[in-house]
Design goal:
By secondary structure, the chain is α/β, with parallel strands linked by helices. Helix content is about 25%, strand content about 30%. The protein has 11 helices and 22 strands. A hairpin with a 3-residue loop joins strand 5 and strand 6. Helix 1 packs parallel to helix 11 and helix 3 packs antiparallel against helix 4. The protein is globular, with a radius of gyration of 24 Å.
Length: about 475
C-alpha cells in the first residue's frame, strides 16, 4: 500500500526530468524520493501530481510542462495518452534510440557487471510506423469514454480496440492505428460497424457474455493477410453472417479463420481453429526462405527488422559450414533455418510442441535437411545425455523469453563449453543476469542493440560470448 500524500505535497512544481526508467517513465528526484512520472521526457521541467507514494519512491503524472525537453515532439496518433501502446510517440526517434541504447548499457553494467566498451550503436528500425505484422483487438460492450465521447453522449457503448492501461474491462475504440499496414484499419472498422448494424453483441469482460470476443490480424512481408475472428457465445447464424461479410468486403484475404472461445481468458493456443476461407497459414520470406505462419505461430512482429536481427545473429555466430549449432528456444525454427545453410547441422529445442511442428514444416518447405527439432522444457531436454547423443556444439544460439534462461540451462551451457554463445534477448535485465552467471567461463566480445519496436521502450539485444582460454 502506498502512503497517503499530504495535500500540500501532492502537487510539485519545477521538477526536472533527469532520466528515463525501463518501463518508459520519466525519472526525477525530489528530496529523498525518486519520482517516476508518466509521459515525462528527460530534459522536461514539469509540474507533477503525485498519485502513489512508497518509502523511497513515488509515481505521478504531468500536470503541466513548464519547460519542454528538446527531445519532445507532438505525438502523431490521436489515441496517444489513452491507448497503452506507443508510449514514446512524444519523443524524437533519435532520442528513443539514445535512451534504448542507454538502458541496455545500464542493465549490462549494473546487473551483469559487463564491460560495455564492445557495445556497437543500436540498429534503427527501417520503419517507424506500420511495422507490426500482428495485432490483436478486443471487442467490448463497455467502451472507454474519452473527454470528446462524454461531450457527445454516445448512444452505443460497443468498442473494438485495445485495453486501457489498468482497466481490464475497458476497451478504447480505435479509429486508426499506426502500427499495422493495410488492410488492418479498414478491416477492423468495417467489422465493428457491420457487427453494430446487425446487433451482434460485443463481449462483456466482466460477465463473460456476448458473441464477439477478439479480432486478430496477421500480415506478412509477402503481402499475405490472415484474419482470425474469435467468438464467445454467438447466436445461430451470426458466425456465417459476419464471415460472409468479411469475404465479400475483402475477397483477397489469404486466410480467414474463426474460433469459439468460451474460456475465461483470451489465449487461443488450446482452441480449435476453423477455416472459413482460404488456407490456414500465411507465408513470410527471408533471403528466399519461406516460413509458414499459422494462427498460433510465434514470429517476430517486425518482419523487416527481424531479418536484420537474424543477420546480426548469423554474423556473430561466424559460421563457416562446419559447425554444429544448438538453437535454444527456437520457436518456429526461424533462426535455425536461417543459419542452416552456413552450418553443418542445427539442433533446435523449444517448449511449445506446435512451434516445433512449424519448425519441421519450415525446414521441409525450404528443402533444409540438416536441422532437427525437439519439444520440451529446456531444462529437462538439454541434459548431459542429450549433448552426448547429438554432440558438443560449436555454437550455441539462445533466444529465451523475457524471463531469461533457467539456471539449469545456464549450467548446461557452462558444461558444454561451446566456443561461442550468441545470446539474443528482448530483456536486457534478465540477459545481464545470465551474462553474469556465464562470465564464469565466457567473456563478452560484441554487443549490438536492435530497435524492433519504435515508439516503445522495448529493445532487443544481441551479445556474442566467447569461451575464455584456460
Amino acid at each position: 500500500m502506498g502512503r497517503r500524500i499530504p495535500q500540500d505535497k501532492r502537487f510539485l512544481k519545477d521538477i526536472e526530468i533527469i532520466d528515463i526508467a525501463e518501463e518508459g517513465k520519466g525519472v526525477a528526484r525530489y528530496e529523498d524520493l525518486v519520482l517516476f512520472i508518466e509521459k515525462a521526457i528527460p530534459g522536461d521541467t514539469v509540474e507533477v501530481e503525485l498519485q502513489r507514494k512508497k518509502k523511497n519512491f513515488a509515481e505521478g503524472r504531468v500536470v503541466s510542462i513548464q519547460t519542454p525537453s528538446p527531445y519532445r515532439i507532438e505525438a502523431f496518433c490521436p489515441h496517444f495518452g489513452t491507448c497503452g501502446g506507443c508510449k514514446w510517440q512524444h519523443m524524437t526517434y533519435d532520442a528513443q534510440l539514445k535512451f534504448k541504447q542507454q538502458s541496455v548499457d545500464n542493465a549490462l553494467t549494473r546487473i551483469g557487471k559487463v564491460d560495455t566498451s564492445a557495445m556497437e550503436d543500436i540498429l534503427p528500425s527501417g520503419q517507424t510506423e506500420y511495422y507490426r505484422n500482428k495485432l490483436e483487438f478486443t471487442f467490448s460492450n463497455k467502451r472507454w469514454l474519452t473527454n470528446r465521447d462524454e461531450q457527445a453522449a454516445p448512444q452505443n457503448m460497443d468498442a473494438l480496440g485495445f485495453h486501457v492501461p489498468g482497466r481490464f474491462d475497458k476497451i478504447l475504440d480505435i479509429t486508426h492505428c499506426f502500427l499495422q499496414q493495410d488492410p488492418s484499419n479498414d478491416l477492423r472498422n468495417k467489422v465493428r460497424d457491420f457487427a453494430v448494424s446487425q446487433d451482434i453483441s460485443f463481449y462483456d469482460l466482466r460477465e463473460h457474455t456476448g458473441a464477439l470476443r477478439n479480432l486478430i490480424i496477421r500480415t506478412s512481408s509477402t503481402g499475405e493477410v490472415m484474419v482470425i475472428v474469435v467468438f464467445a457465445y454467438p447466436e445461430e447464424g451470426q458466425v456465417e453472417l459476419l464471415m460472409d461479410f468479411i469475404v465479400g468486403q475483402f475477397p483477397n484475404l489469404t486466410s480467414l479463420l474463426y474460433i469459439i472461445n468460451q474460456k475465461r481468458n483470451d489465449t487461443i493456443f488450446d482452441q480449435d481453429i476453423h477455416v472459413y476461407a482460404g488456407r490456414d497459414f500465411i507465408y513470410e520470406e527471408m533471403e528466399g526462405l519461406k516460413f509458414k505462419v499459422g494462427p498460433k505461430s510465434f514470429y517476430q512482429t517486425n518482419s523487416r527488422q527481424a531479418y536484420e536481427l537474424y543477420k546480426i545473429t548469423r554474423e556473430f555466430a561466424g559460421l563457416t559450414g562446419d559447425e554444429l549449432v544448438y538453437d535454444l528456444y527456437t520457436g518456429a525454427g526461424t533462426i535455425a533455418n536461417f543459419v542452416a545453410r552456413t552450418a553443418k547441422r542445427v539442433v533446435g529445442v523449444e517448449y511449445v510442441p506446435s512451434a516445433i511442428e512449424d519448425a519441421k514444416v519450415n525446414s521441409a518447405t525450404n528443402g533444409i535437411a540438416n536441422t532437427v527439432f525437439y519439444a520440451g522444457d529446456m531444462k529437462d531436454v538439454l541434459t548431459a545425455e542429450f549433448v552426448e547423443r547429438h554432440g558438443k556444439p560449436d555454437v550455441v544460439i539462445t533466444d529465451p523469453p523475457r524471463a531469461g534462461m533457467h539456471p539449469d540451462v545456464v549450467d548446461r551451457i557452462l558444461e558444454m563449453e561451446a566456443p561461442k554463445v550468441v545470446y539474443v534477448s528482448c530483456n536486457a535485465a534478465t540477459q545481464a543476469r545470465d551474462l553474469q552467471l556465464l562470465s564464469e567461463k565466457y567473456k563478452v566480445d560484441r554487443i549490438k542493440p536492435v530497435d524492433m519496436f519504435p515508439h516503445t521502450q522495448h529493445v532487443e539485444n544481441v551479445v556474442l560470448l566467447t569461451l575464455k582460454i584456460k
